[in-house]
Design brief:
Elements lengths: L1 H9 L25 H14 L4 H5 L12 H24 L10 H4 L16 H4 L4 E2 L10 E6 L11 E4 L2 E6 L2 E6 L5 E5 L6 E6 L5 E6 L6 E5 L5 E5 L7 E6 L6 E5 L5 E6 L4 E7 L5 E6 L6 E6 L2 E10 L2 E8 L13 E3 L5 E4 L5 E5 L2 E7 L11 E7 L1 E6 L3 E5 L1 H5 L9 E3 L4 E4 L6 E9 L2 E8 L3 E5 L11 E5 L5 E6 L5 E6 L3 E6 L4 E7 L4 E6 L10 E6 L4 E7 L17 E8 L6 E6 L5 E6 L3 E6 L5 E7 L4 E6 L8 E6 L3 E6 L20 E4 L4 H33 L30 E8 L2 E6 L6 E6 L18 E4 L8 E6 L5 E6 L3 E6 L14 E4 L8 E6 L5 E6 L4 E6 L37 H44 L15 H21 L1 H19 L8 E3 L6 E3 L8 H8 L3 H39 L10 H37 L8 H13 L21 H51 L30 H21 L5 H6 L12 H8 L25 H127 ...
């Protein structure tokens, strides 16, 4: 922005260390100050322009209290802030666009110590806010304009309302933040620092600070302290162009901000240290909002155009990262998300554009919430959601609704639609035409108060407590909504008027800074001007133009000047009265202008017309002119011009000048259009491209000249120095870039504003391509003949305007003395140009004063006006803001000023209210004129047509008169009709043409004919052939009675299909029975399987192994004894069990405390089912029985059965009526025959003797309706004539042509095809003279006869008597037939009337049932859902129960396995202790060896293969355990080594211990696995049990919900009205003997039920008496039984005490005799004793055999020992002899024989041989020990045998454990004996 850059450049960045703070005076921007060095220049400028006001400006400065840190602290703080901001800027460029991180300071600069900004540091406001830009050295004072007050409110911003405390309200107004004091209504202001505008404001959670996010290039985010309003922190580098929204976290330590396009950057700030923590691109489209989660500050949410995104701050190994997950809409339509709120559990609920709520979970839509009937939660977008205990939603529809939080939080989809219907707890409708966008809460005196922002231009105070004391919504302030279209100030006082598209006109007093009055209309205002003083000296008339083309003249007056009626007072400051309304245009009015003399008002519009009105007491239209384009502005020439002319500026580049039209010169009879008004045209032709080209050429020429000048200077210097200049070849100059081509925009640039400079000359400001200049233009004097569209007019002077290429001037205004020119820019900036000599030139427009006031994006200035005395300046913009400024005058000067409201006109109170134009489609003035002209022409045409019709009628009458005269002439003189024809060929030609036309029409209508035939056939198929019975009316013959059939349709095929299939109930029950049978079968199978397993186990336990070996007599007797004991024990057990069963049976027969007699229960049940329950279904405690519950299918079956019954009854009646019609037909035929016979009889009778013939009955048309569809051409022609007659009658009743046709073309000529209806009627009437009367005459011929004889007379007499009798008989028979038929008809009619009553009742019942069906259908989905949920929970419960049972069975199996393993482990330890023996010195060592823990390597491999995920944990655990084991083993290695058997320890025992340890490890491993499996099963069981409890709870809840739903459904059905027709005698509900008007308290009973109830009263009374007697007898019986019971209890207690005493005396303790009797003999122990005896017998036999063998071996051993001893004695003798011989030899040969003095070789060899033999024997001994240990594990008895053998006589004998061992040679057995054993044996010599 140009001005934005200027404002930024003009305010140098001050050092932040200084803490000076300017004051913030109320109602003005007192902070418009500059540094001291600039103030002097500014003050000199003030002296130059306005010397008297300098002192006032100097005295306008004050200061606030401040803190005073030391100089060292200031320097440190300044350095720290600068370093931080630089580092932040540097980091900002290196940030990633998504999921980025900011490394900590220690990672970036580990060697530097991080410095922090002091908590007490503040910036100076005067050093950071944007100052006005002033051209350098211009002398323009800096305080040329100072802000006085802000009247508007930018209510279209999404969030523009902030409550800092209960009396301070904050909002954004353009480049200012306004702080409004709610009590004093005063305002304070904070300006933006950049001048680029403000994006958002947000308060800190503690309300100690607030953040202001700005707009502009690299905008700042400033944190202000409250209430001191000092800048506390400045956050830089957060976005490129503008901040959109920001939010503090709940703790207030972090701030999140989001930017606008192009970067949409989301930034997380450590705002107190001015550091960026994280940043990421939020989205690629507009982002509206960002918030922290209140419960988890590491979660954020952003929303915007078509998206919502969920963010998390995650700690990763590379640092803190910001990760976003985009919400996916799925099936839901894409929506802009404006409002949302985070729930405590992490879910998010958001609004939508169509008003529903979306519940988000995990980035997906969990459910969409709506109201009942799928109505949206709000009728429009949901703008805000607040979590305030409950969920509060704010809608654009003006409603605030409160929803139950728990219901919303637990909501879930119930069907495929994804919708869930929820009703709000409370709701508040703020008002009509209210569109809420944001609410803010504050506590006032402990009570919560909400302030709401209304997009339609209001601020509301709301009470959302929803109690009896809740206050109604209070509208605190009202403003214009949206852009302000026009503004004007009063020419006599300090009032201004504004209008906007919000349909209001407002009057402000800009001295007292208040709104005086407001008036609203049906359409929005688009133009406004205040009538000049010459028009209304009081200054109270305003002209307002509206978007529907209406112009309204309103007047403002002080109501206090009106006469006051008795008892009334006028307290209002000002009122607005509609004086006149007229509609000159068909489109929006864009400009209004009063002529300088006040005689004419000109109005311009988008409909390309300018209308002129004569200004009088009532504005009278003069006329209008058409212009080439939509009118942009109108300006009358100033008084300095000689002629009064109007400058018309059009949007499409046209400018026109017209003189004032004089009312007396205009002809307004037929139209208001002025056609001969002299008009001068100017069609702007773009020259900007040419100007730029000329500038480029001039720049290049200047560069070339400078280059040549430099070259000449160089040559002169060379010549002065005496150097020769050689002629060089001319250098080739580089080719210049080609000049840009001329560019002319295809669409002309729009004219924005303009004004007169001199007569015929004017200045223009254009937008689009041609912006950046002010163009001085002139009208040509000879342009009347040229087409304006083809003109290309160029301005004759152009002034460039600085920094306006993309920021054109929209509005230009001057002060009264024209010393200042005020310009309103497109970016909302305000410029002031001082003018010299009141003229505009290039020099005067170089120096200016500029300040950004309105919003830079959409706040273009729409109006700019100075007050009548040039003290104040008012601006209004597209952002809805209105600002007032002081023009070079401080606030103190204006304290004495006061706005004067115009006094009312005299007689105003007596005037009728002016008629307003409320219809936007009403005719404008010209259309009304044209309509009147059109109606006048039509009236003249009708009069001419009427005259022609009268002439034709006269001719017709004359022709008819001639025809009549011709008829009166004699026949021979009459003219034939053909003679009236002038030429017969004319009629022939007419007939031929008619035939041709008929053929042509038949061809043209062939397709239509076929189409209608097919249509007729379809209609017949649809409406007639589909009928089973049509309406047939049978009439009586002699009376007016009649009877008709029912019109019936055949029953649908669906009914017959339903009859073929079994009923739903039967099917469902069968299905349920089958499922129950399957479940029962499964249960029985499981139970049988379980019982069989138990029985098998018990059988195995009780199974006694048979001993098939031979037993002794003692063993057999022992067995017999055991058998008898077992039999006795079994008998005792059976006796105990029988007694126990008897007790159980007795206890079962004992009735419980709540016992009910089954007969009584059956009687009660029968009474409940059959006696009838008259409990009202509307009762709250009424519960619908299961068999009476109704659903859709049952109700459909009811309706079907009723429909079938109705159809059957009606069909039967129809058949009877059709039979009656057939009877009538046959009766008529019979009467016809009888009448014919009667006629033949009467022919023989005289006329006097003939009786009148009976009339033959005829069938009426409605008795044979099928003949209606039998037609021929005559019937069709007759029908056509009837239709034509109806059409003619309709044409005569039609009104004149509608005005709508006139609206589209009011100059349309009448149609040629219009036909005079009177002429048609006269032509259609033909003269029919048919007066011929045909008379029939009978010719009677009399024949003379001869006189008859007497016999003949007698015969004739007899014939006559016979004929007379037959005549009477036939007539009686005919009458009898008629009477019988009529009687049958009356009887059937009476029967049908009864059936009609029944059918009417059936229809009423059908309607009631159908209404019930509709209700059931509406509730069916919910009922099915609830029932399905119950069924699902039941099946789930059953499945869980089966799993629980299986888990229990598995756990029991595991327990048994664990017990077995523990028993094995105990047996192993027992075996180990037995192997040690007593007093073993190595017991401690071997015990340690046995108990040492060794980790098996196989477990590692299995664990690694089994679970790769737990590998690391297992390895760590193993390493740690191994390490501990190694440490322990290492410490123990010094004591023992388990791999080596210690000395003097039995090797076999050691190896046995090793093997036992391996077994122990295997057992422990298996035990661990079993325990692990058991623990897992227990966990699964517990988890499943918890789930089962949850399911059970859910099932109970679902059952209750279903029960509640059934009750609600019944209540819905109860709301239906049921019609019960009653006769008066049936009504017995009388009040005071009269029929009541209200039957709401009455009940309807059948007489039978009522009689039954009355009879039942007597029966119940008798039954009650009888029951009382029975009850009395039962009470006496009970008393006796209670007494008996007490006596029995005393006796039992006495016997128990005696029994206990005896047991104590005998046994010394209490004993359970049943247990003693049942367990007196341990059968198992006795069996084991028998087995032991058998084993002892077998072992004794074997021991005898072994003893015999041992004796033999001992004898053999003794023999060998003796032999060996003798040999040893011989060896000893030999040795002695040898020694003697050696002694002798030594004595004999002392010198020789030295070789014999060494070691003897033979002895050495023998000793080596003996040692090897000893080692071999030791090794054999170890092998034998291993084998012994192995065998001892296989059979525990071997150890005992060996011990027995080893104890036998103290010798060690080895007994073979198998036959194979027994066959081992004795030498091998003795090979294990060592020499030590032999020598140490006490039995050996």
């Amino acid at each position: 922005m140009a001005d934005e850059g200027k404002n930024t450049e003009s305010s140098p960045s001050p050092p932040p260390g200084e803490e000076d703070m300017p004051s913030f005076p109320k109602e003005q921007e007192g902070a418009d100050e500059k540094p001291a060095e600039d103030a002097q220049a500014d003050h000199s400028g003030i002296h130059e322009y306005f010397p008297p006001l300098c002192s006032d400006f100097k005295e306008s400065k004050t200061s606030l209290p401040k803190e005073s840190p030391t100089e060292e602290e200031q320097e440190e703080e300044v350095e720290q802030v600068e370093s931080d901001t630089k580092s932040i800027d540097a980091e900002g460029d290196l940030e990633e666009q998504d999921n980025s991180e900011v490394p900590s300071e220690t990672q970036k600069r580990p060697e530097n110590v991080e410095k922090k900004i002091s908590e007490t540091f503040f910036y100076k406001y005067e050093d950071i806010y944007s100052w006005p830009f002033v051209t350098e050295d211009s002398g323009i004072p800096i305080n040329l304009l100072t802000l006085k007050h802000s009247f508007g409110y930018d209510c279209t911003r999404s969030v523009n309302l902030l409550l800092m405390d209960r009396q301070t309200l904050m909002y954004i107004a353009g480049n200012q933040v306004v702080l409004l004091d709610l009590k004093t209504k005063s305002q304070s202001y904070l300006r933006s620092s950049s001048g680029g505008g403000i994006g958002f404001i947000m308060a800190h959670p503690t309300k100690q600070y607030f953040a202001v996010g700005e707009k502009g290039k690299k905008p700042n985010l400033i944190i202000y302290d409250y209430p001191s309003l000092r800048p506390y922190r400045i956050l830089r580098g957060g976005t490129e162009k503008a901040y959109v929204f920001g939010d503090f976290n709940n703790a207030g330590t972090l701030l999140a901000s989001v930017g606008s396009s192009p970067d949409y950057m989301l930034t997380i700030w450590d705002w107190k240290q001015e550091k960026i923590v994280l940043r990421s691109k939020a989205f690629s489209q507009d982002v509206y909002k960002v918030t922290f989660s209140a419960d988890n500050e590491e979660q954020l949410t952003t929303s915007g155009a078509g998206h919502i995104r969920f963010w998390k701050m995650n700690h990763t190994f590379t640092g803190l990262k910001l990760q976003g997950a985009l919400g996916r809409f799925g099936k839901t339509a894409l929506s802009n998300i404006i409002g949302y709120v985070e729930l405590p559990d992490g879910k998010v609920i958001s609004g939508t554009e169509w008003g529903n709520l979306l519940l988000w979970e995990g980035g997906l839509i969990k459910v969409e919430l709506c109201r009942a009937g799928h109505k949206p939660c709000h009728s429009g977008p949901v703008s805000q959601l607040v979590l305030d205990g409950e969920l509060v939603t704010v809608g654009k529809d003006g409603f605030i609704r409160v929803w139950n939080f728990e219901t919303i939080d637990a909501a879930d989809a119930v069907d495929d639609t994804g919708l869930l219907e929820v009703e709000p707890m409370n709701e508040l409708h703020v008002g009509r035409n209210v569109s809420l966008s944001f609410m803010s809460k504050v506590h006032d005196c402990g009570q919560p108060v909400w302030y709401a922002q209304d997009t339609n231009g209001a601020i509301w105070k709301l009470d959302l407590t929803f109690s009896n004391m809740t206050c109604d919504p209070e509208c605190l302030y009202t403003f214009h909504s949206g852009r302000i279209e026009a503004m004007s100030v009063s020419p006599v006082t300090y009032l201004m008027a504004t209008t906007a598209l919000d349909r209001s006109v407002r009057i402000y007093d800009f001295i007292s800074n208040s709104q005086l009055s407001e008036i609203r209309f049906k359409q929005g205002g688009t133009a406004l001007t205040w009538a000049p003083r010459i028009v209304n000296p009081k200054g109270g008339v305003i002209a307002v133009g509206f978007e529907d083309g209406v112009v309204r003249i309103i007047e403002v007056y002080d109501p206090k000047g009106l006469p006051v009626l008795a008892g009334q007072t006028n307290t209002e400051n000002a009122q607005i009265n509609l004086k006149q309304a007229f509609k000159p245009h068909a489109a929006a009015v864009t400009a209004l202008a009063y002529e300088r003399n006040g005689d004419v008002l000109a109005t311009g519009s988008k409909d390309k017309t300018v209308f002129f009105f004569a200004v009088e007491d009532k504005y009278e239209p003069i006329g209008f002119i058409c212009v080439p384009g939509p009118v942009q502005a109108l300006q009358w020439s100033p008084p300095s011009h000689v002629k009064s002319t109007l400058l018309i500026l059009c949007e499409n580049g046209f400018a026109l000048q017209v003189p004032v039209p004089l009312p007396e010169e205009q002809d307004t009879v037929s139209t208001y259009q002025i056609k001969n008004l002299p008009t001068q045209h100017f069609h702007f032709y773009s020259i900007k491209s040419r100007i730029k080209l000329e500038e480029e050429i001039a720049l290049r020429e200047k560069k070339r000249q400078e280059k040549e000048k430099a070259k000449l200077e160089w040559i002169k210097q060379q010549q002065k120095s005496g150097k020769e200049i050689e002629e060089e070849d001319p250098e080739e100059e580089p080719e210049e870039e080609p000049l840009p081509p001329l560019y002319i925009p295809e669409e002309p640039s729009p004219i924005l504003c303009g004004f007169y400079s001199s007569p015929g000359k004017f200045w223009l400001s254009l937008g689009g391509y041609d912006s950046g200049f002010l163009y001085h233009c002139e009208f040509s004097s000879n342009d009347h003949q040229e087409d304006p569209e083809n003109r290309q007019d160029e301005p004759f002077e152009v002034i460039p305007i600085e920094d306006t290429d993309n920021n054109p001037i929209h509005q230009i205004s001057f002060c009264t003395n024209r010393l200042l020119m005020f310009c309103g820019m497109q970016n909302g900036a305000l410029r002031v140009y001082p003018l010299q000599d009141k003229d505009i030139s290039v020099n005067t427009l170089k120096e200016y004063w500029s300040l950004n006031v309105h919003d830079n994006d959409y706040g273009q200035i729409q109006g700019i006006c100075s007050s009548f005395d040039d003290r104040f300046l008012i601006t209004c913009g597209g952002d809805g803001n209105i600002f007032s400024f002081n023009i070079l005058s401080p606030e103190d000067v204006h304290k004495e000023l006061k706005a004067k409201i115009p006094s009312p006109r005299s007689g105003l109170e007596k005037e009728k209210a002016a008629e307003d134009i409320e219809d936007p489609n009403a005719y404008n003035i010209e259309e009304v004129k044209q309509k009147k002209e059109y109606e006048r022409k039509m009236k003249e045409a009708e009069e001419k047509k009427k005259k022609k019709r009268e002439e034709l009628m006269a001719l017709r009458n004359e022709f008819l008169f001639l025809l009549q005269k011709n008829q009166e002439l004699p026949k021979h003189m009459q003219l034939h009709r053909e003679q009236y024809e002038m030429d017969h060929r004319i009629f022939e030609e007419l007939r031929r043409q008619t035939a041709q036309r008929i053929q042509l029409v038949q061809k043209e209508l062939a397709w239509e004919h076929e189409k209608h035939l097919i249509g007729l056939q379809k209609l017949r198929n649809q409406f007639r052939n589909s009928l089973e019975f049509d309406t047939v009316v049978v009439h009586a013959i002699q009376s007016n009675h009649q009877i008709s059939t029912y019109r019936l349709l055949p029953m649908s095929e669906k009914y017959y299909q339903d009859k073929e299939h079994p009923s739903w109930k039967r099917t469902v029950l069968k299905r349920a029975w089958k499922q129950e049978e399957k479940r029962e079968i499964i249960r029985e199978t499981r139970r049988t399987h379980r019982d069989s397993r138990v029985c098998e186990g018990e059988a195995e336990k009780l199974k006694i192994p048979e001993v098939r070996k031979p037993m002794t007599h003692y063993i057999e007797s022992k067995r017999e004894q055991i058998r008898r004991i077992v039999e006795k024990s079994d008998k005792m057990k059976d006796k105990i069990m029988k007694r126990k069963a008897e007790w159980d049976e007795l206890n079962k027969s004992k009735p419980s405390d709540d016992y009910e007699n089954p007969k009584d229960a059956e009687d009660i049940r029968e009474a409940q089912e059959n006696m009838g329950c008259y409990k009202l279904k509307t009762a709250t405690k009424y519960r619908v029985p299961d068999h009476k519950r109704m659903n859709t299918e049952k109700k459909v079956m009811q309706l079907t059965s009723l429909e079938v019954l109705i159809h059957k009854r009606k069909a039967n009646m129809n058949n009877e009526i059709m039979s009656l019609r057939d009877l009538k037909v046959s009766t008529i035929d019979e009467i016809k025959c009888l009448v014919q016979e009667l006629k033949s009889i009467q022919a023989a009778l005289d006329l006097s003797e003939r009786l009148p013939l009976p009339l033959i009955p005829q069938l009426h048309p409605d008795e044979v309706p099928e003949k209606k569809f039998e037609y021929d051409s005559d019937i069709l022609l007759k029908f056509k004539e009837e239709q034509e007659a109806k059409a003619k009658l309709q044409e005569q009743l039609e009104v004149s042509p509608s005005s709508r046709a006139f609206r589209h073309g009011f100059l349309r000529a009448p149609s040629i095809k219009e036909i005079d209806p009177m002429a048609q009627a006269a032509g259609a009437r033909l003269m029919k003279i048919a007066s011929s009367v045909v008379t029939e005459q009978r010719k009677i011929f009399e024949i003379e006869k001869a006189e008859p004889t007497e016999m003949e007379l007698d015969i004739l007499k007899r014939e006559k008597i016979k004929n007379l009798y037959l005549q009477e008989t036939l007539i009686k028979k005919i009458n009898a037939l008629v009477i019988n038929f009529d009687a049958e008809l009356r009887f059937l009619r009476h029967k049908k009337l009864k059936l009609d009553v029944q059918m009417k009742s059936a229809d009423l019942r059908y309607i009631t049932w159908y209404e019930e069906l509709l209700i059931l259908k509406n509730l069916e989905k919910h009922e099915n859902l609830l029932q399905g949920r119950v069924n699902t929970l039941i099946s789930e419960q059953e499945a869980m129960q089966s799993k629980l049972n299986s888990y229990l069975a598995q756990m029991e199996d595991r327990k048994r396995e664990i017990v077995k393993l523990q028993e094995r482990e105990e047996a192993l330890y027992a075996n180990f202790q037995a192997s040690l023996g007593e007093n073993n010195e190595f017991a401690h060592f071997l015990t340690k060896v046995l108990k040492k823990k060794i980790k098996c390597m196989e477990e590692k491999e299995v664990g690694r293969e089994a679970d790769e995920e737990d590998e690391n944990e297992e390895e760590n655990d193993e390493e740690s355990s191994l390490g501990i084991a190694e440490e322990n083993s290492g410490s123990e290695d010094e004591v023992f080594d388990d791999s080596v058997c210690p000395k003097n320890c039995n090797e076999a025992l050691f190896q046995n211990t090793i093997q036992l340890r391996q077994k122990r490890l295997d057992i422990e491993k298996a035990l661990t696995e079993e325990k692990k499996v058991s623990a897992n099963l227990r966990k699964k069981y517990n988890a499943l049990a918890k789930k089962a409890k949850v399911v059970e709870t859910s099932l109970d809840t679902a059952d209750r919900e279903l029960e509640t739903f059934q009750w609600e459904k019944q209540q819905r059905l109860n709301e239906l009205y049921v019609v019960v027709p009653l006769k008066l005698h049936q009504v017995e509900y009388l009040v005071n003997g009269e029929m009541p008007s209200d039957f709401s308290q009455a009940l309807v009973f059948t007489n039978q039920s009522l009689e039954y109830l009355q009879k039942r009263i007597v029966d119940l009374h008798n039954e009650m008496i009888m029951q009382k007697e029975i009850y009395k007898a039962a009470q006496e019986q009970r008393k006796q039984l209670v007494q008996d019971k007490k006596e029995m209890e005393i006796k039992i207690r006495r016997l128990e005490e005696k029994c206990n005493h005896l047991m104590m005396e005998k046994f010394g303790r209490l004993v359970d005799f049943e247990a003693v009797q049942a367990h007196s003999v341990n059968i198992r122990m006795e069996e084991l004793k028998v087995q032991i005896m058998e084993k002892e017998y077998v072992h004794s036999q074997e021991l005898k055999e072994w003893e015999e063998r041992i004796l033999d071996l001992q004898q053999h051993l003794m023999k060998l020992t003796k032999e060996n001893t003798s040999k040893l004695q011989q060896l000893n003798q030999f040795c002695l002899e040898k020694q003697q011989l050696e002694t002798k030899l030594a004595s004999l040969e002392n010198a020789p024989g030295e070789e014999f003095q060494g070691t003897r070789t033979t002895a050495i060899k023998e000793a080596a041989r003996l040692e090897s033999r000893l080692k071999h024997m030791a090794r054999d001994t170890a092998h034998l020990r291993k084998e012994i240990n192995l065998l001892s594990r296989k059979d525990g008895c071997l150890r005992e045998e060996l011990a027995l053998l080893s104890r036998k006589d103290g010798y060690l004998f080895l007994q073979p454990s198998s036959p194979q061992d027994a066959e081992t040679p004795i030498t091998e057995l003795f090979s294990v004996l060592t020499p030590e054993m032999v020598t140490n044996s006490p039995s050996l010599p």
